């Protein structure tokens, strides 16, 4: 019976969970009596909606373009060669876009 469990465990561990469209979830707890105990579970990854991803990318790109048009970031270098961004409006370093 132990051999069966060893083979089953080896078979489960040898499969690539993330490459097959699975999500691996590991939860660990710590107890002063039992030490660290972790459980690993596998679940199907949600189906990707490519049309929605394209819409999200367009919306994200539109926000970036709006911010760039408002803030007009310019890269400058200080005397130690560290790159810095300078903005046309105050508050742009915090995400202000209007």
TrEMBL record:
Query: What start and end residues bound the annotated signal peptide?
Result: 1-19
Does the keyword Signal belong to this entry?
yes
Q: Which domain of life is it from?
A: Bacteria
Q: Report keywords, A-Z.
A: Signal
Task: Give the protein name, as stated in the record.
Answer: DUF1311 domain-containing protein
């Amino acid at each position: 019976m132990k051999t069966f469990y060893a083979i089953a465990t080896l078979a489960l561990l040898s499969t690539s969970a993330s490459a097959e469209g699975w999500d691996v979830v590991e939860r660990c707890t710590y107890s002063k009596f039992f030490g660290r105990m972790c459980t690993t579970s596998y679940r199907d990854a949600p189906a990707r909606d490519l049309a929605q991803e394209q819409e999200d990318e367009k919306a994200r790109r539109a926000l970036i373009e709006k911010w760039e048009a408002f803030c007009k970031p310019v890269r400058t270098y200080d005397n130690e060669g560290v790159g810095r961004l300078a903005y046309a409006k105050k508050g742009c370093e915090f995400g202000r876009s209007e």
